Amino acid sequence: MKKKVMIGMSGGVDSSVAAALLKEQGYEVIGVTFLLTPTGTEKAAEDAARVADALSIAHQTVDFTTEFANDVMDYFANEYQKARTPNPCIICNQKIKFGKFLEYAEQNGADFIATGHYAKIQKAPDGTYCLMAGVAGKKDQSYFLYTLTQKELSKTLMPLGEFDKEQIRRMAEDLALPVAHKPDSQDICFIPDGDYMRFLREYANYKDQKGYFKSTDGTVLGEHNGVAHFTVGQRKGLGVTFGKPMFVTGLSAETNTVYLGEQGTEFMQEFTASDLRLTSSDSLSENSSVVCKIRYSAPLVPCTVTALADGKVHIKTDLPVRAVTPGQAVVFYAGDRVLGGAVIDNMY
């Protein structure tokens, strides 16, 4: 009997080609589109259904709106109000695209789930599963997947890991998929206009509150409308001119303070992170040659990781890194293998 796989289909090019590749590999493929918000996902479901029809595979939708609001949107709003810069894609992958989806798939008789992520899963000689960076270079998405457990890795297929984006586009064209020329999504899915302050006001009833810009020695430099407007490393859009470039070096929700420094102060080499999650129990301790990435678009940099209490770690990078941002993930690699990751702590 064919193995049954449910693939998350967003109506985009990547998941559409992933579904085609799985069918070509002999799986019984069922496309599943997640309804995540009350409005705005209808077009995604329609596009996914058209692709499924073109591929002659089954398609269904599953309503995760309540779970998405509770696990992702609430998290996003709460983090900003704590003067942190959240990464909702990582939480969505952990809670929805692999957590809830795998539960749903198992309840409905699927052997595997699949996604259109640019990453790879390999089985090691000891029987454990390894999350690996994809070959797609800057499009590699392993950074967003460090929370995956051994169970999730063992039950997941990622058919795009051996391809780059240009190859996937060409495959979509060759297959005459109806979404072959659909542009990639660039924004947070529940904030399609990119206006996260509007989202905070409407969804979380956020209200501006006057606070101070301060230098790191405590000198008051000016006023602002609330720490939620800012992120560490920011230079433009401060709302005040200082006669020289100034960067956000830290934020304090408790005192509603935005700390600023001159060029160069946005770099650092030591910081801590919490909620350490490893792809296997000893994946970090068994590796001495570790590199880390502090944002999806940041370069990899060699580092030393020291375990602290309660799932915390201390990270010292070999070179200064820019804009170490509380709320973002630091993800650890040994070569192409993802070892795990943690959430960067507030510095103020």
Task: Tell me briefly what this model is.
This protein is an alpha/beta fold and 348 residues long.
Radius of gyration: 21 Å
Strands, total number: 17
Q: Spans of 5+ residues with little confidence (pLDDT < 50)?
A: none
Query: What would CATH call the class of the largest domain?
Result: Alpha Beta
Strand order of the largest sheet: 12-15-14-13-16-17
The assigned structural class equals alpha/beta
What is the typical, i.e. mean, pLDDT? 94
Please provide the ordered H/E string of secondary-structure elements: EHEHEHHEEEHEHHEEEEEEEEEE
Distance between the termini: 58 Å
CATH architecture of the largest domain: 3-Layer(aba) Sandwich
Give a verbal description of the structure:
With 348 residues, the chain is α/β, with parallel strands linked by helices. The protein has three domains: 4-174, Rossmann fold; 208-262, Adenine nucleotide alpha hydrolases-like domains (SH3 type barrels, Roll), CATH 2.30.30; 269-344, Translation factors (Elongation Factor Tu (Ef-tu), domain 3, Beta Barrel). Helices cover 25% and strands 30% of the residues. The protein has helices spanning 13-24, 42-55, 65-81, 88-107, 150-154, 165-174, 196-204, and strands spanning 4-8, 28-35, 58-63, 112-114, 119-123, 129-133, 156-157, 211-215, 220-224, 246-252, 257-262, 267-278, 290-293, 301-307, 313-322, 329-334, 337-344. The strands form four sheets. A six-stranded antiparallel β-barrel has the order 12-15-14-13-16-17. It has a five-stranded parallel beta sheet with strand order 3-2-1-4-7, with helices on both faces. A four-stranded mixed beta sheet has the order 9-8-11-10, with no helix packed on it. The radius of gyration is 21 Å and the shape is globular. 43% of the residues are buried.
